[in-house]
């Protein structure tokens, strides 16, 4: 009988500890949700619309994302479940996502994701840490480019990728996946608005001119999975030429990437 009572007490104690741990976990999650910034995600859809439901599904699994919007550039027309769908009558280019984001209210940051990749695991901890360190003044992303400024007319194509095992300053944070402060985005001028498909170069240049801080690439590339890229912009025959030209125009505007001061 004593042995049965002892086992019963052990079982009750085990359940009590489990309930206590669960209650602490719930409390920590609630506290984390109350303190973290509110973040909207925008997926740009155009010709690769078959990919978009997959991208949205995985973005909705990210703990740091509060809402997902799909901005449909023509010819994309299929509504995507789990997201608010916004439709453009034509194809105003990639820059349309930044223009749309300027009108969003109630968010501290906006995350932008292309339609040819998605985060396959939760990157919330690493991303929020990156935003805490650099999000006030900088564009944060996963893919970046260091320019070769000794060749101003081919600075982009002569440059190199910016990836490492640590948070790394970058001249250009690529548009594939990037996050920017809502306040910073809304404060930027309309300069270089003609760069409809080089919106990431435009965003990097304008934010750095304004804040005098570089962009930052987080070491999260291994957490992303590629989707079919049949219509990707980098497959344009003049892709490198267009990006070199965009960099040249931004430099002429006063952008000095090598003079940006990295945070300690």
Architecture overview:
By secondary structure, the chain is an alpha/beta fold. 36% of the residues lie in helices and 18% in strands. The protein has an eight-stranded mixed β-sheet with strand order 3-2-1-4-11-6-12-9, with helices on both faces. Strands 8-7-10 form a three-stranded antiparallel β-sheet. The chain has a two-stranded antiparallel sheet with strand order 5-13. Helix 6 (199-211) packs parallel to helix 7 (239-253). The model is unreliable at 25-30 (pLDDT under 50).
Short overview:
The protein is of the alpha/beta class and 264 residues long. It has helices spanning 2-35, 52-60, 96-102, 124-134, 182-187, 199-211, 239-253; strands at residues 39-45, 67-72, 84-87, 109-113, 117-119, 140-141, 144-146, 160-161, 168-170, 172-173, 177-181, 215-217, 224-226.
Label this structure with key terms.
3-stranded antiparallel β-sheet, globular, 264 residues, 13 strands, 7 helices, 8-stranded mixed β-sheet, alpha/beta
> Which overall shape is indicated by the principal axes computed on the Cα atoms?
globular
Strand adjacency order, main sheet: 3-2-1-4-11-6-12-9
Strand residue percentage? 15-25%
Query: Share of helix among residues?
Result: 25-40%
């Amino acid at each position: 009988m004593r042995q049965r009572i002892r086992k019963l007490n052990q079982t009750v104690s085990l359940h009590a500890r489990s309930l206590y741990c669960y209650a602490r976990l719930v409390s920590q999650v609630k506290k984390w949700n109350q303190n973290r910034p509110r973040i909207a995600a925008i997926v740009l859809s155009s010709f690769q619309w078959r990919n978009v439901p997959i991208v949205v599904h995985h973005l909705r699994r990210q703990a740091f994302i509060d809402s997902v919007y799909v901005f449909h550039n023509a010819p994309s027309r299929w509504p995507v479940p789990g997201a608010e769908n916004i439709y453009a009558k034509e194809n105003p280019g990639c820059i349309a996502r930044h223009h749309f984001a300027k009108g969003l209210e109630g968010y501290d940051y906006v995350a932008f994701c292309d339609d040819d990749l998605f985060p396959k695991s939760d990157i919330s901890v690493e991303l929020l840490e990156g935003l805490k360190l650099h999000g006030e003044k900088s564009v944060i992303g996963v893919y970046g480019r260091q320019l070769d400024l000794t060749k101003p007319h081919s600075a982009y194509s002569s440059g190199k990728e910016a990836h490492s095992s640590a948070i790394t300053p970058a001249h250009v944070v690529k548009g594939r996946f990037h996050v920017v402060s809502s306040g910073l985005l809304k404060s930027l001028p309309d300069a270089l608005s003609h760069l409809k498909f080089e919106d990431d170069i435009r965003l990097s240049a304008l934010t750095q001119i304004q804040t005098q801080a570089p962009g930052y690439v987080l070491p999260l590339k291994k957490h992303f999975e590629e989707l079919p890229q049949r219509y990707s912009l980098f497959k344009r025959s003049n892709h490198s030429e267009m990006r070199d030209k965009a960099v040249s125009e931004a430099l002429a505007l006063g952008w000095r990437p090598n003079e940006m001061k990295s945070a300690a």
